[in-house]
Amino acid sequence: MSADTERNRESELASPKAGHIGIPVDALCVGCGQTRVKRVRLEELDQPSQADPHDLEATTLTSFKHVCYRCQGATWWNPVAVLTGLLESEQGE
User: Fold this and answer.
1) How many domains does the chain have?
2) Which is nearest to 78 in space by CA: 42, 49, 38?
């Protein structure tokens, strides 16, 4: 079983380490290489604030700065996937 399938993205999103504002994305830390769920504002991804997250492709999003607890500081993260399923479950859809 791969490490990715063992992850619980819902609990990662619920953790304060994910952030408090923005859409959930799976992102890769450029410092240590770990992948984690992070919340990020659309503007930080060079997207208009009214953009529909369902229409976004991770490959078109820009890197963003966020805290990496393993690196012990703010580092750059590369979006790997927009987690619209988590977004919908939060909204009760």
Assistant:
1) 1
2) 38
